[in-house]
Amino acid sequence: MSRRTRRTLLIVAALLVLVALAVFLRSKAPPEAARLLPESDGIIYIDLRPIRTFLHKQLKPPQRVPEYQQFIDAIGIDPERDLDQVAIALHRMPDPNGPNGPVAYSLVMVGKITGQRLNAWLDAHATSRETYDGKTIYSVPSDGRTVRVAQIGYDTIAASNFPTPEKIHSILDRHRTAAWPLSGSTLLERHYHDVPLLSLAWGVGQIGLPFSESGSIHIFGLALPLEPDSTIIASLRWTGSLHLRVEEIAPSESTATSQAADLATLVTLARGITPQLGANPANNSLKELLETAAVTQHGERVVVTATVPGNFFAGL
User: Which domain does 293 fall in, by range?
Assistant: First the structure.
């Protein structure tokens, strides 16, 4: 074998190793939409494509208020049909009673959601515009706050109602390096490995922030024995049925023991209350969810698991 042939074979082998390494890293990496998100207190990600596939029989056409339908008609995009992925960053506000509320959001949305009609709507409703990294950022007023919106790809839109433009600037900065599978925020680096494989939807960090009220987290009207700033890893997986898993990382093992006991008591109490609820699809789904709920503790971690009825999402 000649020296030139050996050199060629070594180059080919090195390229194959690099390709294999890139494929492996990308398989372990968070979805690109989540990697684009800026630094935040919590992250929520939903892949709507498999949800539509598995639950299409349970999903009913949405009942829209006229104003929302007019907006859909104006931009030429139907989110229920055209949106494929959404990644949301949660930003805790220093003054929960201030003009920006307790939490701000930054979003990355992927799907058939771009187009001239959307750009025309943004042009008509924006109070100001900014060019950053070659992209136009539209500032649109909404409920007393400013939402900044930018099209960052042929199928990707970014938006943020953070008080300053730094968060949407960060998304655009990350978009330049999105091909690198290890890019992403500190929160993703710390906790994405805790998300179960093949999860359709998941959240990491302080994802209880939107549900916080009077210093506690409320779900279905129940106050959970968790702090809003608790570090939580929640996920939904499809394995023939939908499996919910919520894991809290407590400050200490003794705190985890106490919270596990409180959660188990709360589940038992909720099971006793639900038979008294009326017989409607929402209440029936809640009853089925509670029947399969289980609370366990593993050191400093408290884990709640349950099977989610397919019709639980019928009203979404």
Answer: 208-316
